TrEMBL record:
This is YvrJ family protein. It comes from Halobacillus litoralis. It comes from the Bacteria. Pfam families: YvrJ (PF12841).
Length: 46
């Protein structure tokens, strides 16, 4: 049981940081996709 606790302690922080960063990047990607969808309308209207 002790090796499992050590593995979780060592790997837990990097996994948590990775999920946090992926969550932030996902929001920025959604915003980028919305902007790209609006681009043709902006080009046509100008």
């Amino acid at each position: 049981m002790e090796p499992w606790i050590s593995i979780i302690a060592d790997v837990g922080f990097p996994v948590a940081v990775t999920f946090y960063l992926l969550h932030r990047v996902e929001g920025k990607l959604d915003q980028l996709i919305d902007t790209l969808h609006q681009l043709p309308e902006k080009i046509i209207s100008s």
